[in-house]
Amino acid sequence: MDFQKGLVSIIIPVYNGEKYLNRCLDSVIGQSYALIEIILVDDGSVDSSLDICRKYASKDRRIYVETKENTGVSDTRNFGMSKAMGEFIVFIDCDDYVSSEYISHLVSLMKDGIDMGVTGWIRESVTGEVKSKCVSLKETCDRDRTLELTVSLSGFQGYPISKIFRSSVLRSGNVLFDKDITIFEDLLFCCTYIKLCNRISIDTSFQDYHYVLHERGSRYASVHAREFNKNWITEVYSLDKLLVLISGSSKAAKRVRARIALSSSFYINRMFECGYEDKELQKSLVKKVRKNLFPALFSSEGDAKWTMQVFLCSISPKFEYWVKTKN
């Protein structure tokens, strides 16, 4: 397929986003970089989201509305990519918003020989209170350095947002979001793409993306819900797949191994907190903690408290949880 040179395809998966969608779309159509197409993919919303999408499409010819049955955000993003005609792909979530220079800054990074651009983000509450900002970085990297920065908790994170991808690389490498993973599917997607890149340009001083924290996301549920959901464990499965993918990049692989131990111990704790009993699952997670204990203990991926949690969990999960509840 021949992609239109300079065109940026902005893919926005939409699911029950009526509360935030107007702000999101207003910020997207107001971009200073005008050569864009906006692909709205409604994932079976049951609120007024589809009506809002169609209203905006009737006023702006750059907007295309697609509809599908509810199959989740990964399948929805994949569907959007299949419709894209642009040289570049950018993702925005329907409950977030961006500054007017967002696309312009991303495109400015895509010089000849650059396969991916990375800018910064701001995490904020629904009321606009800033919770955290992306780490400060400005460099052009090879794939190994970029993989390390992507998988590290102190890096720019493996979100699909605040990144610009080349459509030709995505298509030739058949890079898609894994529909069977509900947490860290984006991290796996980004790293799969990076493995196909030669050079990546990073400038997180451009903090144009406003990532709004709310209670709808799977990550929020995995931390706060009172009832355990086995789909949360796909986070660990994603990290397992990621470790195989980047096994040739030693620094990144060590960080992923540390995160496997951290995530496994976290979900063991969540099983106790939710009163969820599954001896085989707990046994499997403990095995992962023990297998990756050494990288976790000597890594900067977790603070002292989290590292102690991993260590005690490797000895006795029940004792570790008892110690945690006593403190």
Q: Would you write up a description of this structure?
A:
The protein has two domains: 4-212, Spore Coat Polysaccharide Biosynthesis Protein SpsA, Chain A, CATH 3.90.550.10; 218-326, no CATH class. The protein has 327 residues and is α/β, with parallel strands linked by helices. It has helices at residues 21-29, 49-59, 73-83, 102-108, 143-151, 167-172, 185-194, 218-224, 234-245, 250-273, 279-291, 293-297, 304-315, 317-326; strands spanning 4-14, 36-43, 63-68, 86-91, 97-98, 116-124, 130-133, 138-141, 163-166, 200-212. The mean pLDDT is 95. Strands 1, 2, 3, 4, 5, 6, 7, 8, 9 and 10 form a ten-stranded mixed sheet that branches.
Nutshell version of this structure?
The chain has 327 residues and is α/β, with parallel strands linked by helices. Helices cover 45% and strands 20% of the residues.
**The CATH H-level homologous superfamily of the largest domain:** Spore Coat Polysaccharide Biosynthesis Protein SpsA, Chain A
Summarize the biggest pleated sheet. 10 strands, mixed
Q: How many helices?
A: 14
Structural class from helices and strands?
Answer: alpha/beta
Write the layout of secondary structure elements.
Blueprint lengths: L3 E11 L6 H9 L6 E8 L5 H11 L3 E6 L4 H11 L2 E6 L5 E2 L3 H7 L7 E9 L5 E4 L4 E4 L1 H9 L11 E4 H6 L12 H10 L5 E13 L5 H7 L9 H12 L4 H24 L5 H13 L1 H5 L6 H12 L1 H10 L1
Parallel strand pairs: 1-2, 1-4, 2-3, 6-10
Antiparallel strand pairs: 4-9, 5-10, 6-7, 6-9, 8-10
Helix pairs in contact: 5-7, 5-10, 7-9, 9-10, 10-11, 10-13, 11-13, 13-14
